[in-house]
Amino acid sequence: MELRHLRYFVAVxxxxxxxxxAEQKLHTSQPSLSRQIRDLEQEVGVQLLNRGVQGIxxxxxxxxxxxHARMALLQAEAAKQAALRSRRSRASRSVSCRAxxxxxxxx
Length: 107
Hints:
This is LysR family transcriptional regulator. Keywords: DNA-binding, Transcription, Transcription regulation. By secondary structure, the chain is mainly alpha-helical. It contains 5 helices and 2 strands, in the order H-H-H-E-E-H-H. The protein has a single domain (3-78), classed as Arc Repressor Mutant, subunit A (Orthogonal Bundle), CATH 1.10.10.10. A hairpin with a 2-residue loop joins strand 1 and strand 2 (55-58). It starts with a helix and ends with a helix.
């Protein structure tokens, strides 16, 4: 399961429509988005959405999955931010020192 699948699923759930999510939120084609959602459902092993002419409706499994998908995306973003903070913190603490040529490069 990839974060991309979770982002797509959350966007579809929020939009209430595969077409709206594809065109307005994700800027991708509807058939491609439908395929990604089907792949996610296959990987999870349950149907997450009921598809109809009026849009989509989350199944009971989809509602349960949505909460966890949102948390996973928040955790992934928090992990990214922690790594960036660590990099900035480490860069500000770096120390540079130089040794005389006679010490580091013997003749």
